[in-house]
Amino acid sequence: MLTIQQIKADPERVIKRLAVKGFDASEIIPRVIELDDSRRALQLQSDNKAAELNRLAATIGAHMKKGERAEAEQAKALVAEGKAAQKTLAEQLEAVEKQITDILLNVPNTPCDMVPEGRTAADNVVEKTGGPMPELGPDALPHWELARKYNLIDFDLGVKITGAGFPVYLGKCAKLQRALIQFFLDRASEAGYLEVQPPYVVNEASGYGTGQLPDKEAQMYVVTLDNLYLIPTAEVPVTNLYRDVILPADRLPVKNCAYSACFRREAGSYGKDVRGLNRLHQFDKVEIVRIERPEDSYAALEEMKDHVQSLLDDLGLPWHILRLCGGDMSFTSAITFDFEVWSGAQQRWLEVSSVSNFETYQANRLHCRYRGDDKKTRLCHTLNGSALALPRIMAALLENNQTPEGIVVPEVLRRYTGFDIID
């Protein structure tokens, strides 16, 4: 959530930057400023009224000591009248604060100056490319055909048990899935991330804290009886570990990693782009999360990008990094870099990771702060990234590593799988 300080410091810049995301704030931002001015005026009245009540209350005892009963009763009446007025002021103040919060919860984060303008994915900028491109013959099979050929994934059985988008992994593919998870977690631990194992369901406060609510509730699975939400990513519970927390400066940076299943309704998704593992309702992912001082967050972002790139290099996958344009960014992000891998048989790029800096946007919702050396509290910057999401990694590994003898397992995974080929 944007802070009032951000907005009032340079409202025209806030409006201009939000326009990069395609969000028209030309009326909203002046309204927020107007409401905040009302809030400040009400707060001043309330403070003055409280001071007046304290002064009147002090006179009651003085009148009683002097035997001035009539004057004491008059002072009591004025105190009672003042308390009623103060209650009214408090109700008005609460109403104005709620209006401000309700508005700001529906205003996205401002993209930083490095975010390119653009409306769709076609306007994203390719930052960097690497990894060996596979040399596959004309008979190369897409991963869903390979899954059938080698009995690796049963999509129909998943439909029987749950529905479309919930595959069942079998045999060596199940082991390969587990190997990827362990590999990603081990590499995150080596990079200094503390592993946590979070819940897979969260409450509303957690959803609001990281910005899934009220923006993405239509994409989340809801446990209606308990008003809980299945997590779309481990980012949500892990970042919420620091909700309503003031961190001492010497605890920063905080670096956490977590494996979890992820659940997304993906409403409106259909067609060839969702075939096989390309788009699922349940999938596995290892997430990295960082809590940083503002002055350190962009260096941390580069470290996270380097970490994800190293995983793809070690898996031998061809990749590129996209700097997302304003129109293709998430509601909460200040800047996002997407990693995509090349799917050899499908002849297309598949997104496998998003690495984002949210600056103070999530921290303001979470009340996640740190206490500096000057003892003042300030909002942290929060960052997260997929390191990595498994389904499309699996799709690319199966397709790009197919040979006449079988599917070759990347060398870095063999100590986890116990085999070097799927045949």
Characterization of this structure:
- With 423 residues, the protein is of the alpha+beta class.
- The chain contains 13 helices and 19 strands.
- It has helices at 4-9, 11-20, 28-65, 69-104, 143-149, 155-161, 171-190, 204-210, 235-239, 297-315, 361-366, 390-400, 414-417, and strands spanning 125-130, 153-154, 168-169, 194-195, 201-202, 222-223, 228-230, 246-248, 254-263, 282-292, 319-323, 335-343, 348-357, 369-371, 377-379, 381-389, 402-403, 406-408, 421-422.
- Strands 1-11-12-13-16-10-9-4 form an eight-stranded mixed β-sheet. A three-stranded antiparallel β-sheet has the order 5-7-6. A three-stranded mixed β-sheet has the order 8-14-15, with no helix packed on it.
- A hairpin with a 2-residue loop joins strand 17 (402-403) and strand 18.
- The longest helix is centred in the N-terminal third of the chain and has 38 residues, at 28-65.
- It starts with a helix and ends with a strand.
- The mean pLDDT is 95.
